[in-house]
Amino acid sequence: MSKHTPGPWSIARSGFPVDAFGILSGDMAIGQTVYIEDYDEHLANARLIAAAPEMLEACKQALRRIEQLDIDADPAVGPDPTQDLLKAVIAKAEGK
Fold it and tell me: How far is residue 11 CA from its own chain's centroid?
């Protein structure tokens, strides 16, 4: 069970005390990005952060599906790095 605030998360623009985007879970603020120079990059960062809970769940579902398929690596190509990548991303998100 993850210890993070459950999703979905959303973003809301705030101008006080600095131009920022709040990361929200319902009405509760759980984080904030602060605008420095590039507004578009700032907004993209906020969107990426807000999508994190759904992305984590998607990674977990994809890993379960790959494991259910029980696909052996092609000996001519070597192991598929997808499974290891998913495991690493999930571990990073969960602080392991």
Answer: 14
Tallying the residues shown for the chain, one arrives at 96
Whether 44 and 56 share a structural domain:
no
> Distance between CA 11 and CA 55 in Å, rounded?
16
- Do 43 and 11 fall into the same domain? yes
For residue 9, give the nearest of 38, 47, 44 by alpha carbon. Answer: 47
Specify whether the CB–CB gap between 48 and 33 falls below 8 A.
Answer: no
Q: What is the extent of the structural domain holding 34?
A: 1-50
Per residue in 14-50, pLDDT (tens digit) is 766 667 888 899 888 888 887 777 888 888 889 999 9
Same domain, 59 and 93: yes
- pLDDT tens sequence across 64-77: 988 887 666 566 66
